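Reopening this one. Same input as before:
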Amino acid sequence: MGGSNSPGWGNPPGGGHNGNWAGRDYYQAGRDIYVQPSPDPGFFRRRLGIVVITAALIVAVAVVVGWRLRSGAATGDGSVPPVTATDSPPAGTPLSSVNPLPSSNIYEYTPGKPQQIGSVLYPNSIRFGCSSSLSVLYKYNSVFYNVAGFASLTVTVGVPANAANAASGAANISFWKNGTTQLDRTVQVWQGSPRTVTVPLSGASQLEVYCTSTSVGIPGDSGDNIDVALGGAVLAKS
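Same output, byte for byte:
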């Protein structure tokens, strides 16, 4: 090799970068020569391609998530937004347009406003609170309506989705004719579990909606109540 056999990187035999040695260095250890291969240009192109594709995927995901948030496909807490009740209600008179009779004993009676019951938003609803059957101080249990001439009441009963007192338990709802005869079975509802019923009103001049809370709170304390809502309530004449 024309001189020292000590290991080390150097120029190729014959000097200069000529012939088959062009563009490469070699390492000499004794009589052996190890050639350092030239970098593969395709390697860098492949790495660049992977980086570009990854960046494009990140941008695409960010665009999709932003669109879903702007369009209301998801709420801030990841829950599914309510579906508005758009089906045409049965022909008749909305119960929310009928004034409760003076004999009613209920609190925070709110008619004609939208209420979310379960996963459905009912635009024309009735909301009120009722107390526990164990309460001795608060007897907010009954709302009365004049229903003379109507044949039935169709209504979805439930606990509003935003009721702050929903954790107190459930509500038992029953319907009474002229204060003496129960018109339909008692239904029990709680938040996220509404019930839809059709109550026969034939021969009834007065309808009582009777509600009690199942709360196990302190009897007589205002914390033993629960809010209920009547959604899509319609009185029909036939």
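So the earlier flakiness isn't reproducible anymore. For the record, The CA atoms of residues 26 and 124 lie 87 Å apart.
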